Amino acid sequence: MPGRKQIPSFQIASGTTAERDNSYNIPTGSIFFNTDTSNIELSGNVVASDISGVNKITFSDSSVQITGSPIIEYLTSVCDGSTLTRRFSNLSNVEVAHITEQFAASNIYADLTGGGITYQPPPGTKKVIYRFTFAACSNNRGVGHIKFFIDDDEVTAGGMGLSFPNDFEIRKVYEMVITIGVENDISKGYLLNWNSQKTLTLKARRLANQYGWNGHRTEWWDGATASVIIPPVITLIALS
To answer: Which of 52, 57, 153, 194 lies in the 20 to 30 Å Cα band around 30?
Structure first.
């Protein structure tokens, strides 16, 4: 365009991943173009007020943030005793239970094993989705109830009933959404703030003796009656 001021471009350091790691001494605060991935890499802490033109951010721990997405954090694991490392350095890692035995429902409420987890969401979180997927079985008609707790307080809106026909095996998904910043009413799953660690727990029971059921195992397997342990899966999703 005539009369438009010409602004000279500048070239940043570039090279392969191997060159970046082995040949260059890249100090904190540097910008580097990786010719292997066609990505621009920033070293050190980055503060940005507008990233509207960025589609994806990959952190040094390989976690990914899709810009424009409401998901701040997504943690999920089989209940195998894993420690879930977080990219928020000021927040504790999340410890997952190690399930190696069945849950046998009785006539009184007991912790549904694997469903307990201690968590503090990242700053800016408005909702947390708690999801627990578990195997259930019975050689009878199974009927039961599940309650959800935040610390020692029951979330009555999070109750769930179970009812199965005779001789069943199934995977069930329990899910509850915790809302932050609106009001403090734990019975509805509402917390005015969530600035410290809280323990989320499921408790379960059967309706009566004749309506028994078991969690985390099969009733049959490979063409025969067989009890095989199926560890549950627990998921936490923090949303903005």
So the answer is: 52
Triad 65, 97, 128: Cα angle to 5°: 40
Neighbour tally for 42: CB within 10 Å: 14
pLDDT at 98 over 90: yes
Question: Residue 86 falls within a domain, yes or no?
Answer: yes
CA distance 105 to 145: 10
How far is residue 111 CA from its own chain's centroid? Answer: 20
Kindly list the distances between the CA atom of residue 31 and the CA atoms of 12, 19, 34, 120, in Å, as whole numbers in the listed order: 7, 14, 10, 33
Please state the domain count of the chain.
1
Q: Rounded to two decimals, what is the model's pTM?
A: 0.74
Domain enclosing residue 184, as ranges: 70-239
pLDDT per position as a tens digit, 17-36: 777 665 666 666 677 777 87
Residue type, 54: V
